[in-house]
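The record is kept unedited without comment:

——
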Amino acid sequence: MRLQFEFADSVRLPSGRRFNPRRPRSAGPLDAEELAWCRAHGVPLAADPVQSGMVVLDCPDDLEDAAVALPRGAAAAGPAVAFRRWAAQDLPAFRALLDDPRVWRHLPEPYPDPLTEAAAAALIALANDAPHHEVRAVIRDGVPVGQVRIAFPPGSADRQEAELSYWLGAAHWGRGIGTAAVSAFVAQCFRRHPGLAALVARVHRDNAASARVLARAGFRRAGPGADAPEIVLFRLNRQG
């Protein structure tokens, strides 16, 4: 991969150690000081789902799975996250995250008070089995903290547009995880689906935190929901 910006092969960081932004991806994700230097110098970054960290977008890629470029206009800052399908052994964690009325406050379905083990298992099965959507657990420091999902219109052949939705366990709010997860997942969706032209998201008008997450991920307001005046639509078109 060819770097699209100019800087010396090696730079000296404030701590005094040397840092080579052209190092190969296999050298590992950037640490906090390296990330700070890259952001200060406008270096494009990518979320690396394999190594659960950030790397320079155009670093020499000597790993098999591609890193995920952040969408244009998206925030590059944030904690490292990864994605995988929910597994049967995640049931206790899934239930603990979702059995909370705060999480359900702005979700389209009512809170099943309480969320039983059987209901949680059914939700995991639905997440993994439905052909019209892709659901992934958000992994932070090796454990699930929430979920991201894209859903295509049922029966759609071209799959040019999909709806994005997401949630985080309340204990993980306010830490930048939502912005990091949405930004990385959006980029991954556009990479995995070449025919995908746009993503849309529906946010309750009182959910200011979710609106900020979408704005930082590059989404723009697209007006009120046609069938629900309390819903605000956001949209992100494929870039380039």
Q: What stands out?
A: DSSP finds six helices and twelve strands in the chain. The longest strand covers residues 143-151. Residues 11-69 form one domain.
